[in-house]
Each structure stands twice: as structure tokens, then as C-alpha cells.
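Input chain follows. Return C-alpha cells only.
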Amino acid sequence: MAAATIKVTYSLKPDTVDRVQKLAIHWGVPKSEVIRRVVDNAVIEEIPIEKTETPLEVFLRIQRTSSGIAPKAAAKFNAEVRRERRASGRKRL
């Protein structure tokens, strides 16, 4: 008996959609099967099931495997986080 599937909707970049389509044609499977295979493979290779990544580990892995965050965007984000933390902190009299 086949496992039940759930219909979902995701937003993807056009180049990602193109790559999924090309893989589906190359492998001779539906696009949903391409996504299942890629996700299953990523989970097996990058995140051992018994290990839970901390938010910092996730961030660092994404930074290593992608083009990362532009330095100006990172600096802006860091400044916003500092500002929010200071604003939520205890007020000194």
C-alpha cells in the first residue's frame, strides 16, 4: 500500500521551477517526485535524524551552501536586532 500524500503549495523562484522541470523530464517522473527525492536526499546527507540543529548551525550551513547574505544586508539585519534587543531590555532609571 502506497503512503498517503498531502497536496501543498509552495512559492519557488523561476529558475528553481525550471530545474525541477528538467529533472522531472530527465528522470521520467512527476515534479512532485523530484521534490520528494531531493528533500529525502538532503535530509539523509546533511542532517542526521538523531541530531537536531541549533538555529546557529542552520544559519552557518545555509551560509556555506548558498551565496549567503550580502554584507550590507547582514550589517543592516544585525543593527536591527541590536536595536530591538536594546528596546526590549530593562529601562535604567
